Amino acid sequence: MNARSLHYVFRTTNRQKAYDFYVKKLGMKILRHEEFGEGCKASCNGPFDGKWSKTMIGYGPEDDNFVFELTYNYGLKKVTQGNDFGVEPLPKNPVNKVVLHVSDLEKSIEFWGNILGLAVNVTKKGERAVIGFGTGQTALELVSIHEAVKRENASGRIAFSVAQRELKPLEAKVKEFDEKRILTPYTDLDTPGKETVSVVILADPDGHEICFVGDENFRKLSQPDPQADELLQKAIKDDWSDEWEASNNK
Question: Where do transmembrane segments lie in this chain (predicted)?
Fold first, then answer.
């Protein structure tokens, strides 16, 4: 299966601080910003049902760069960090790899490699394995921590694109392996005023969420928006969450 690594999702409760970090400190650019009036049926914004936003941020267009998706849920003031995400500072950019903690490296390699086909480049060294769909793409490094992986409501998901025709066969393959690994079966997701994309949401043995999206329409959806920065700043300015919380806590 040919696939393309796309992005990793982080949740934020303060878009201004996130903007200051990613844009002002790391030098990334706002690629697109989208507002949604209700929760995502594929849980893109996490286990929350209300109004939310999505901001794509990175060093270049999504067609050619691995980027980050920042999801923000209006009214949500705190998220809990788990031990699922690994951090390893690198001497240079662009994004080289995403590091995730796992409880059993062999089981993880079986799922990511044998079931998902993410095994073009497998380099296992001790308690670590680096896997990917191809050279030149952002890799995924799995690191065994020999304890249960705790995913909390701050935990995000990693995304890959495949040809639209490969989504349903992939879902069927995972279902045959373990139906519990399918979080959201094949479904279409709408973005107001933009392209509709088809996705399948999976979970690995430790619960790490994985989004597979149809590549053809995602390339159209993910084109940089020259007004993205302005849209994000307006959304931050117009955010009513603090006022709403204050009025309801009187």
Answer: none
